[in-house]
Specification:
The chain is α+β, with helices and mostly antiparallel strands. 20% of the residues lie in helices and 31% in strands. Strands 1, 2, 4, 8, 11, 12 and 13 form a seven-stranded mixed beta sheet that branches. The radius of gyration is 27 Å and the shape is globular. It starts with a helix and ends in a 6-residue tail after the last strand.
Length: 548
């Protein structure tokens, strides 16, 4: 009986932790690993929460809830002998708890403060709830996981990934890209959570960094993602500055499973020039002309649009003799360098292969002891460090100045991997009057913007909420693979008679039925002659896709 009561209590608490709403972003939970102040670990042996009088702390294994007292200041939770202990203002109140431990605020107007954790110089605060779950790799430690709705997650991501001064349309483009990445990350590197809170995934700083304009961008793209021609959410990669020319996926990333590089191409993540007059930069002459000049481009206002780095030959030799050891562990340097003494005297550096944007994907470093082949843009950037900082990008040309003290000078452009959306490019496009969908469709080729496609059956209707502005051009798409003859479609409490249309066409213009703001839609199958397995795919698309 006690176990049943504890289980019911847990279900009630879980229900309180995430407020499930009607809109798509509220319906999708996200699990985010919270790192320390230096962003170099996600595992803890102890953690503290201040304002503990406003927190409910519970062990999910037993249903035990820590005493709530008005005068509690600090709650400390530790991992000792592979079990959790709970202290309140230094007093041990519980031991031998197996966890996971859940922490939530006592009411929706309260947030969860992690003691000593800072984000943007402020006390870190979190919505939703915190889960302390034991690490599968090191059971003596635990992960700090923030579980919250996708909407509230985005509120802590968008203003930290893009300056709000870039404007509403740029922020809306960033929001869609961030929403896509949350739904479809490139890799799942952690067992205890879905996403990390740093640049290794996308930057999430919690509730204390939210901004009104980015909140508006989230509301006005509610539930909208970018999808490919098969209606699947795209891998929406983005970086700070592309330098005027984005790169194709296969020339920047290795295959996550096989480590193959270059990897297989992704059609919507192909190299895109900001101006049609820009030709591919995969040869040395074209790359040098482009990166030693400043042609007008969408991200030309970025401080990293063009940059240069310089080393004496002796300085660069010393840098490479150390960085090649660390980067040899990636598997993209041959032969492997283990000892600095085996590097030798630097003789030459030669580019062997470039991507379409001029990104170096393979180069040769020759010394008097060996010839090293270095591949992959991130590895290359981390090899050529200046003042212990990696290069902004791998889009650069090498100039060797043979003088009394020889010098290597690199002229380059861009910051980051350069695949997909350029954040600085989105900012300028917005200032020039481009809408968020136009920005996204510039950087991701052949995509459409839609709500997440859902399957409709006789027993499961489609219900959703989406935002429409005064000039929105929205379409309802039904892919009727089950030969369904009749549907009931209701939008904003008005029924649409579109059955004949859906027997012959694939999409329906909703413009006449939309209101400015949030719109509710419901699609039901009313054909009672169907077998139970009959189904259709339904979604709302922003502007009619070319292939519809």
């Amino acid at each position: 009986m006690k176990k049943i009561i504890n289980l019911l209590l847990l279900i009630i608490i879980m229900g309180i932790f995430i407020q499930i709403g009607y809109a798509s972003d509220n319906n999708i939970p996200v699990r985010v690993g919270i790192s320390n102040n230096n962003f170099n670990t996600y595992l803890y042996s102890e953690i503290e929460f201040n304002n503990a009088q406003n927190l409910v702390i519970m062990d999910t294994a037993t249903g035990y809830t820590a005493p709530q007292k008005d005068n509690i200041s600090i709650c400390k939770i530790t991992s000792e002998n592979n079990l959790f202990r709970i202290y309140q203002d230094g007093e041990l109140v519980a031991r031998n708890l197996t966890g996971p431990i859940l922490i939530r605020a006592v009411s929706e107007d309260k947030l969860i403060p992690v003691n000593g954790l800072k984000r943007k110089g402020k006390q870190a605060l979190y919505r939703g709830y915190i889960e302390l779950t034991r690490s599968k790799k090191d059971i003596s430690k635990f992960a700090l996981v923030n579980v919250l709705s996708l909407k509230n997650y985005l509120r802590g991501v968008v203003p930290n990934e893009m300056p709000v001064r870039f404007g509403l349309e740029a922020l809306k483009a960033q929001t869609v890209a961030a929403r896509n990445y949350a739904v479809t990350p490139r890799v799942k590197a952690y067992e205890e959570f879905d996403l990390c809170d740093s640049v290794a995934c996308q930057v999430y700083y919690g509730a204390n960094t939210e901004e009104p304009l980015s909140d508006k961008a989230i509301d006005e793209t509610n539930g909208i993602i970018a999808t490919d021609k098969e209606d699947k959410p795209i891998l929406a990669l983005y970086s700070s500055t592309a330098g005027g020319y984005t790169e194709s996926y296969e020339y920047a990333f290795s295959d996550p499973a096989t480590k193959q590089f270059p990897s297989n191409d992704i059609p919507y993540l192909t190299a895109v020039p900001d101006d049609k007059k820009f030709h591919p930069l995969d040869d040395e002459k074209s790359a040098e002309e482009f990166y030693t000049s400043k042609p007008e481009a969408f991200d030309d206002m970025s401080p990293y649009y063009r940059w240069s780095k310089e080393w004496t030959k002796k300085e660069l030799q010393e840098v490479l003799s150390k960085t090649l050891i660390a980067q040899s562990k990636t598997g993209f340097i041959t032969p492997v360098l283990v000892n600095s003494d085996d590097f030798g005297e630097l003789q030459s550096i030669k580019v062997l292969q470039r991507g379409k944007s001029g990104k170096i994907i393979k180069l040769e470093i020759v010394t008097d002891k060996n010839t090293f082949i270095v591949q992959k843009e991130l590895v290359i950037r981390r090899c050529f460090q200046k003042n212990a900082i990696s290069l902004p990008s791998a889009n650069f040309v090498i100039n060797y100045i043979d003088s009394e003290e020889p010098v290597y000078k690199f002229n380059g452009g861009g910051f980051g991997h350069g695949v997909g959306l350029s954040q600085w490019g989105a900012g300028k496009m917005a200032s020039l009057g481009y809408s968020y969908d136009e920005i996204l469709q510039h950087y991701y080729k052949g995509i459409k913007l839609s709500t997440i496609p859902a399957t409709v059956t006789q027993f499961k209707p489609y219900s959703d909420v989406f935002y429409a502005g005064k000039k929105s051009d929205m379409y309802l798409v039904i892919k009727n693979s089950g030969n369904i003859k009749s549907f009931k479609i209701t939008i904003n409490e008005k029924e649409i008679d579109a059955n004949k249309l859906f027997r012959n066409e694939k999409s329906y213009n909703l413009s006449h039925y939309l209101i400015d703001g949030l719109n509710k839609i419901k699609v039901e199958i009313t054909d009672e002659t169907l077998p139970s397995e009959a189904q259709a795919k339904v979604y709302i698309v922003v502007k009619e896709a070319d292939d519809e």
